[in-house]
Amino acid sequence: MPLTRFKDRLRVPPVLRPTCDRQRSPATLAVHMVAHRVRLHSELPPTDVWTYEGHLPGPTIEVRRGQHVRVEWINALPVRRPYPVTAFTAEDPAADAAPDQIPQNLPGRGRGRVNEAVAALRPWTVVHLHGGRVAAVYDGWTENGAASGQTILGDYSNDQRAALLWYHDHAMGITRFNVYSGLAGLWIIRDAEEEALGLPAGRYEIPLLIQDRNLDTTPNGDLTGRLLHKVEDNTMEFFGPFTMVNGTIWPHLPVESRQYRLRVLNGSNARTYRLVLLDGNGRSVTGAIRQIGTDGGLLARPVSIPPAGLVLAPAERADLLVDFRPFRGERLRLVNTAGSPFHGSPSNQAPGTPDPTNRLPYPDVMEFRVSGQRVNDTLVLPERLASFRRLPPPDVERLVALVEEVDGMLTLHELEPVSVSEEHLTQPTIAVTGESGVTTRYRTVAAHFRDTTNWFVAHGSTEVWRILNLTEDTHPFHVHLVQFQATSRDKYNVDGFDASTGGTTTPVTFVGHGTLDANETGWKDTVRVNPGELVSIALTFDSYTGRYMYHCHLLEHEDHDMMRPFVVMPAPVLAAMGDMAM
Ligand SMILES: [Cu+2]
Predict the structure, then answer these.
(1) From the CA of 562, how far away is ligand 1's center (Å)?
(2) pLDDT digit string (tens) for 325-346?
(3) Ordered structural domains, the chain, with CATH
(4) pTM above the 0.85 mark?
(5) How far is the C-alpha of 517 from the C-alpha of 553, rounded, in Å?
(6) How far is the CA of 282 from the centre of ligand 1 (A)?
């Protein structure tokens, strides 16, 4: 163990509650992006990080539903100091390498090369409120970055149900490094519906922002504390050996023997977690957890965690009620059982066992130390938590395929059916045989961020987006502006897809219905699409208009072209534009 587990106490980020000076004017906040030095673990030297307001994670911004808040995001990051992250590409391990020779399991660089382009970066940032209904100009369009000394204005209506959102950097091409440097924080919206439940609050409501990290070493192998973004030649995603919760590696939290509300966010670049709670004997006590909310707020009713554990891909959130009463005087470990890269398949290891073959050298996340004292806690969770209605049938359906091209570039292929007049096309097409047995041929109309915008959405309409994963890994699919509903997860045989042509030799074919977990049936802004799955989501565009993005939330994928624009426009404007829009 390179660092003592559970040594340091969990820190909780400070809370900023914006208030307005005068009636009717929006509350205002000034949030500075500043360089800072923090200890990620008490046995480490200080680490250079970039922060919001000097805190890692940034301060939690807490607002009321409907509270109008204006934020000045001030880039006050230093121009002359080196970029706080060393980007390094390690040589692939030999085919017969032992797990402890897989570079991403090891702290420090090993054999490989430093990415000098990253070393030469200067501060360039843009802030996105993830999960927020935000006007397009304030949404943090990836190309609209601010240099040091410049300010980005954010105007947030917070006109949505109570939820845990998060703000983070979204700068074009370098989001993975800027977020990794520390530019992320939580944003909590409160409302009356949630308050009526009398959920644990104050020091009994704890946010847990989970992120993996790697650290550089001296030639002797001592950890320097410097942030190291190490990938491998053939694994572009970052997976680090150390797990940080709220900016501390493997922390512990003393808790009373009562119920707690834990608000969990996976803020990792690429690592998916499957979280299991273990008692002192290594026995799973995950049954002590009920999930009450997800990305977009409260679920209609509380649900159990899936037996194998709570899966959270990057950017997904879980609102949990954890009952520590049966565990007086015990220590409980929260562990990860998901290997990386994540494919959606279950683990073969006993929970808490290292799985270095799958880049999980240290499964620990954090420890809860339950007090021996008896506490009076009479909260009984109601069976109905919040209002929920299914979205109406869609006006429009769209299909996008997740494709890894032969050069390893990951892309989003927007697909359109081949019309009769196009049947002579020489371009490769993707044939899909659906549940009904009908085969449709599609052509790719865009695949890269720079390609033409195709998706023009009528304001007020409901759409279904179908996401077909033709790659070998799970991708968390994120849409800006809206909270959506996952409606189905179907399994397809995708063997007929040929990445070298971008087309199919035999149709991609429906093989059966998969399952959405109970905790995926609430409001979501990020949904996992496992290999060979076609996941459908329903979205109603009833708030703002303008240009937004959808993308994979593995930050290395988002930066390497798994990101596309879409535009919401008033329906009469679309009609006036005629064919051009559709
Ligand atoms: Cu992806």
Answers:
(1) 6
(2) 999 999 999 999 999 999 998 8
(3) 15-84+113-190 (2.60.40.420), 202-374 (2.60.40.420), 396-581 (2.60.40.420)
(4) yes
(5) 20
(6) 33
